[in-house]
Specification:
By secondary structure, this protein is mostly helical. The protein is built from nine helices and no strands. It folds into two domains: 10-102, no CATH class; 106-206, Helix Hairpins (Orthogonal Bundle), CATH 1.10.287. Helix 1 (10-31) packs antiparallel against helix 3 (46-63) and helix 6 (115-142) runs antiparallel to helix 7 (150-171). The chain has helices at residues 10-31, 35-40, 46-63, 95-102, 106-112, 115-142, 150-171, 175-189, 197-202. The structure holds magnesium ion.
Amino acid sequence: MSEQNEELTQEIVNEIFEQGKSEWDKRLKESGLTQSMFISTNHEGFPVEFLAHYQMAKDGAEAQGFTMPVLVEGVEVKLSDADNEDGINVESINHSDMVAQLAKPGQDIVDQLTAGDAHTLHMAVGISGESGELLDAVKKAVMYRKQIDMENIIEELGDLEFYMEGLRQGLGITREETIEANIEKLGKRYKGHNYSDQQAQDRADKA
Ligand SMILES: [Mg+2]
């Protein structure tokens, strides 16, 4: 599979892929493992070697202008100079690399941000922060058995109202709209507006 073929055509590339896929699926099934276990344990030495050769074939085909699909989604195969005799290394992408690769660059976010976005984000962050403060006030009463601090509860609810109203204004929606939507949603979820665990689990409004 890794051999270069000067008379390569897209048809042959497709065949190589199909053969590779079917071999991979067969060996994976025989192993009885999940795909991630199959790869991470390098079951019977097959997966890593196979992925390396597949990647070499893919690179070779693509260098000649053909396309070859990824054999195993979610796994990055890196071929590099290595100490082993084949001169190849296969690395499944680790979580840290994946995060670094996937997280949208902060500069891109800044470049694309509008004043409206900044306001929306400010209000949404405010809602989340004040929710935490409210929860903390409740925690002190419930967990520490302190008398509930109503002044603080009112303060935090007021803070929440501030950010919710700011968010609505920024997005051009009204409080009435959100309340109507809530009534409609829960009217669908709970027949006659009566609670039951079954209806809570069924979530008829989402069906
Ligand atoms: Mg507050």
